[in-house]
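Students often ask why we bother encoding 3D structure as a string. The short answer is that it lets us treat folding as translation between two languages. Here is a chain of 212 residues written in the first language.
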Amino acid sequence: MDLGEVVNRFEMNELFNRPVDPYRGAPSDEVDALWESIADIGIVLISGEDVHRLGKDPAKTVKAPKHWGYGENIHLAQIDGQHRLHCLNVLRKWAHYDHYFRPTYGDDAGLLQNSHRDHCLVLLLHSLTCQPSLDVITHNWVDTQPYPVPDFNMNRKCKNHDKIMDWQSHNRITMEQWDEIAEMERPEGDFIFPLWPELVELNRQNGVNRTE
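And here it is in the second language, the structure alphabet:
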């Protein structure tokens, strides 16, 4: 399947929510379900050769257990674009802090949640500066407005996100397999990175010993 398939799309993006875009709605179960579906991250499987092509060392990335039956040199991965959408969803929730975070965390969501927010903010900054859109926005005269008003509606050539979601759906591991990875002993000889010092300290404060 060609994940780079391009489709023509006209995007309506008015300043106000007209016509109604359900992703712009106030927090609700329905809006959350829409965002969670489009931002879903599936763990997929790639070859050791794929890892090499990414400029990474397959000796330091996690392999699928042999008894899963995928082969000797198959590694766990995820689609970067889905992680970006996940981060956009995280920032959407931060924009509605009172709804999503204040009931649990009060005025300060704490180190872990704040770091997650900032990670997502900078990740999207890097994404937009690494692969900036060169689509062009025109301007219109609008009644009573002294300056020309940008027209954010535009024709785009877009990658077909539905195709990407279909590929992820057909190539992902199951939640049972993901949970098994978390419970299994680390295979002998696998490379293990040290835990970030901030989380070491946070675990110490919470009385958590991950080595037990």
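Translate back mentally: Strands lie at 6-11, 44-47, 74-77, 138-140, 149-151, 154-159. Keep this in mind for the problem set.
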